[in-house]
Amino acid sequence: MKIKKIETLVCHARMRNWVFVKVVTDQPGLTGWGEATLEWHTRSVVGAIEDIAELLVGEDPTRPEHLWQMMYRQHFWHGHGIVRATAIAGVDLALWDIVGKVAGLPLAKVFGGPVRDYVRTYCHLGGGRMEDFYETPVDNAKRFADLARAAVADGFTAFKSMAVPSPMPIEGQKPVKAAGAAVGPDIDIMVDCHARPSPAMGLKFGKALDAYGLYFFEEPCWPECVDGLAKINAALTTPVASGERVTNLEAFKEMFDKRAVEICQLDLTHCGGFTAARRVAALAESHRIALAPHNPQGPVSTAASLEFGFSQPSYIICETVHNDVPWRADVVQEGFTVEKQGRIVRPNTKPGLGITINEKAVKKHPFQQEIVLREFSRDGAVADW
Questions:
Q1: Is CB count within 10 Å lower at the N or C end of the chain?
Q2: Would strands 318-320 and 290-291 be described as parallel, antiparallel, or unpaired?
Q3: DSSP-derived pairing of the beta strands 318-320 and 119-124
Q4: Rounded to whole angstroms, how far apart are CA atoms 370 and 317?
Q5: What would the pLDDT profile of 72-130 be if each residue is shown by its tens digit?
Q6: pTM for this one?
Q7: Domains of the chain, each with CATH number or no CATH
Q8: Which residues are catalytic?
Q9: In this predicted structure, what is the pLDDT of residue 132?
Q10: Strands of the 31-35 sheet, one edge to the other
């Protein structure tokens, strides 16, 4: 069996262009699907996949570990920059999809069999709708409460908000308090700082929210500030989560060794796919650090994140979006099932990732430039988004 070609299909989904990766073999009808979505870098990723394809065409697709080494180590530059790592991830996911199809097994069984009966999921406030999650003003506590009630009415037992104030941490208490009061103590709430604060401000904000019993406190400072993350994590009772922007095993090791997090948010579409993520998961388990993958992307990323969850003992919850575009379900058929009450996911029963991409539906939404988001401080200086 040989790889015949590697294709990309770009699907515009408002805030993001989903980049689907299709690995075509010389066996009739046998293809694998992956995803390499990277906001505002769509053209770069598609080009990187074209470069990688030159290495892999003619190779055996059922050797994903060997091919991952080729993608990561050959062409001189190691593949841990965000564009190359994302491209590698998309191809790697598709290769493993082929392995599962050849074996006739869901990937969770290929990886050793399911370790749980279901995977718990959480949503963004607004279900992934950009205006609700990213643009609700931090001082609009009523809107946060309404979105929280809507998430619970949709069946979720956990949701994430971005109640991140610009100047003073006390401002972020109001929407969190309002959301908690709206849904009660049985619903878990996460707060995502999007790595906007400095370590000092992240610590102040974390201390202000510590009494609310958050499920986790996400990216309270830049992930590059590992010592700062570690200080925040040591000072709070709330678990600190980070890792979505980390792309290589060595960086994860530093984060774990310094106890910078309690929850690792590796992203299967950015850290090198299943091949790399399984190494990160083993390293996390040795530190007793939980896994809650970052997954605001498209449906192939979701299928991969869930399949990974069924195979990893340290996995606790999966991020999902379901309301980013109204036609999301049109582009994919999924092998897993979602129970409305609790939004828990039962295992995929089909080979590989268990998904089929509707290429005709994808073509209805061709590439468009993503909405350009620029952030500036009050004085005009550049700020983090």
A1: C
A2: unpaired
A3: parallel
A4: 28
A5: 999 889 999 999 999 999 999 999 999 999 999 999 999 999 999 999 999 988 876 76
A6: 0.95
A7: 3-105 (3.30.390.10), 110-353 (3.20.20.120)
A8: 194, 294
A9: 62
A10: 3-13, 16-25, 31-35
